[in-house]
Design goal:
Helix content: 25-40%
Strand order of the largest sheet: 5-4-3-6-18
Shape: globular
Structural class: alpha/beta
Bound molecules: flavin-adenine dinucleotide, iron/sulfur cluster
Largest sheet: 5 strands, parallel
Number of strands: 18
Radius of gyration: 23 Å
Low-confidence stretches: none
Distance between the termini: 57 Å
Mean pLDDT: 96
């Protein structure tokens, strides 16, 4: 094991050539010895910058000190005070731009592997049957939470700890939001990680009702007026996919990344005996450069296709996490950068037979500060593909806003809510996560769920 304090303990991973053909988890995480060794690199800073980089303000030096002392249960209870989903966050949070991006060790060497330590503690607690501590008594007030993604689960967990009776209403047949239908098994195992953390939230007293579509099955006003809920939190995410609106996009074999990943993750279409089918293309183009694009590409690869990421800017502007791009490259995904689709071509049966693209070059910076991609005249060419997965971002579904009077949204259909406490324009109704910000991250959704739980508690305590 490493003895250089500037170098982090490396984490073991499944071999790239092997994992390109299976859906098992890529990263193995730390074992006890590795975690304790890495924990000794933490300086236990008085004014810990890492905590300022964490949207849910986990007491990072305190939990790492407990790892160092080998009090793993204590470490887990410290994390649980701030986070309901540590095994998830330890796996998918962009720590490099958050806690680890601020770690003092990062000035001279590698920042402390805070994410891998969090994951170790959460997995250890699961393996030893340790549950988070709940509320000692109930306060008799009822809160409805819409959506069981990270925002809803966090808000529900925090309110249950404060003594509220909380029911989550989820449209799908399984709880978890993007954690179950979006992020693939090889990055975030469902049975062993996501479902176990949802069980922990339930152990705090939270009820979850699945197959309930708010805005169709029942409205927010009915929940409050007829079903006796004192407040409502909306954490319904941003699940509506965007398309390019180019000719031929209606052809068979063109999928949104959302649909493709939902088939594979939620409906388990990657398993041979699954009821839900999935198209296992021979040569698949994934259009886009974010985390979702990487997940769709790596899924298609595992289903046996040659996969190309088609992105209109250069590698420097790829919005996906560096780790995801690195893993994708290791596994054999081909990156066609500075390339933009202009038309999808179809055969006589209406199925994708190719994708006409144009080469791009980078011009002046645009309003996002990134250099604007500009078409190179006369550079059109046809990519020979039999499936195209569009991964161009998502926006909130307008179902809830259009069926709830007094709930204001902005021009992107995102619910308008106060960042400090989640309050919307409708009294007693709070919101947070992707439904408010548009597609963002797990930890930001959790931070918003926490803020709204505080807001709801304040509102109901003064009512
Ligand atoms: C493929 C993919 C990969 C990602 N990878 C990462 C990553 O590595 N790291 C990271 O930090 N973030 C990642 N993200 C983003 C992250 O998952 C989201 O930002 C986060 O899940 C948002 O949480 P949320 O609770 O707001 O919404 P969601 O997770 O979308 O949950 C919303 C829930 O509300 C339910 N719902 C919607 N409408 C209704 C209704 N009318 N009635 C009842 N229920 C309803 C939905 O079914 C869903 O279960 C990824 C996203 C995707 C799609
Ligand atoms: S900034 Fe780094 S070294 Fe300091 S307490 Fe946080 S993790 Fe430890």
């Amino acid at each position: 094991m490493t003895t250089d304090v500037n170098v982090r303990v490396p984490v073991r991973e499944q071999d790239a050539a092997k994992r390109a053909h299976n859906f098992e988890e890529v990263c193995y995480g730390y074992n006890e010895e590795e975690a304790v060794c890495e924990s000794t690199r933490c300086l236990n800073c008085q004014n810990a910058q890492c905590v300022k980089g964490c949207p849910v303000a986990i007491d990072i030096p305190a939990f790492i000190a407990q790892v160092k002392a080998q009090n793993f249960e204590q470490a887990y209870q410290i994390i649980s005070k701030s986070s309901s989903l540590p095994a998830v966050c330890g796996r998918v949070c962009p720590q490099e731009t958050q806690c680890e991006g601020k770690c003092i060790r990062g000035f001279k060497g590698d920042p402390v592997s805070i994410g891998k330590l969090e994951r170790f503690v959460a997995d250890w607690a699961r393996d030893h049957g340790i549950k988070p501590e709940g509320a000692s008594s109930k306060n008799g007030k009822k809160v409805a939470v819409i959506g069981s993604g990270p925002a809803g689960l966090t808000c529900a967990g925090d309110l249950a700890r404060l003594g509220y009776e909380v029911t989550i209403f989820e449209a799908l047949h399984e709880p978890g939001g993007v954690l179950v239908y979006g992020i693939p098994e090889f990055r975030l195992p469902k049975e062993d990680v996501v479902l176990k953390e949802i069980e922990n939230v339930k152990s705090l007293g939270v009820k979850i009702e699945t197959n309930v579509v708010i805005g169709k099955t029942v409205s927010i006003d009915e929940l409050m007026q007829d079903e006796g809920f004192d407040a409502v939190f909306i954490g319904s995410g941003a699940g509506l996919p965007k398309f390019m609106n180019i000719p031929g996009e209606q052809a068979g074999g063109v999928f949104s990344a959302n649909e493709y990943l939902t088939r594979s993750n939620l409906m388990k279409a990657f398993k041979e005996d699954a009821d839900t089918p999935i198209y296992r293309g021979k040569k698949v183009a994934v259009v886009g450069g974010g985390n979702v694009a990487m997940d769709a590409a790596r899924t298609a690869l595992r289903l046996g296709a040659e996969v190309h990421i088609v992105y209109r800017r250069s590698e420097e502007e790829l919005p996906a996490r560096v780790e995801e791009v690195h893993h994708a490259k290791q596994e054999g995904i081909i990156f066609d950068l500075l390339t933009n689709p202009v038309e999808i071509l179809a055969d006589e049966s209406g199925w994708v037979s190719g994708m006409k693209c144009i080469r791009m070059e980078l011009g002046e910076p645009d309003e996002s500060g990134r250099r604007r991609p500009v078409e190179v005249p006369g550079s059109e060419f046809v990519m020979d593909v039999d499936a195209v997965i569009m991964s161009l971002g998502t926006s909130p579904n307008p179902l809830i806003s259009s069926t709830t009077e007094g709930l204001d949204v902005n021009k992107w259909k995102c619910i308008i809510a106060d960042e400090e406490n989640g309050a919307t324009t409708k009294e007693g109704v709070y919101a947070g996560g992707d439904a408010v910000t548009g597609a963002a991250t797990v930890i930001l959704a959790m931070g918003a769920g926490k803020a709204a739980a505080r807001g709801i508690d304040e509102y109901l305590s003064n009512k």
